[in-house]
Please model this.
Amino acid sequence: MNFLRLFLALAMWPGIYATAVFLGKVLRGAFNSPSFQWMGSAIFGAGLVVAWAAFFFLPRPRGFYVLGHELTHALAVWLSGGRVHSLHVADQGGKVVADRVSPWINLAPYILPFYPMVVGILWLAGTRIWPDLNNYGLPFLGIWGAIWGYHYAFTLGLIPTCQPDFLAYGRIFSLTLIIFGNLIVAGILAWSAFRPFPAGQTLLMLGSEWAWTYTQLVYWLSGLLLRYMPHPA
Model:
């Protein structure tokens, strides 16, 4: 199974490259749009930077992060149709005991941003109930950027550690899924914020990028094999 997971991880990297290239095209299309919201993007980015600086120079809200981390494990269990038996949270770590495990359950906290997701849903619900909240969109983006910043800072801080979530299915396989999942989340967030292309066109562009990347890989591997295979006498 370890060899199979390693093979699957390596096979996913061209797709990860294709997804990253596609995300770059989405962002480039958004930047080139006359309606691009530079102020909102700058404030969101400032929130990210402030959170990263606070992460390194101020006391870290580790217990608060662990709570969101373990709740994301529990959410992944529920979404998988399972049952959570117990949930333990402490500053040094936490634990969820459930009736099933899977790579999705183990790695969900490193892909799904629990607090940014909850705050984003509450904001959208609040603007529907109290439309005047839309007048405070820029301050919200700054706060939301800071919450995202803490999510990514804690996630990246755990990558070099011997986190059991990574070791259960192999570090390379786990990190591959984490990178791919975060690219997908970033792509959805970027498209939802800027919408530089219609949804159907966006999915078609992503599929075309994947098809082109894997076609080029197969073409290169075929040429390599033909070059070094022994020719018949």
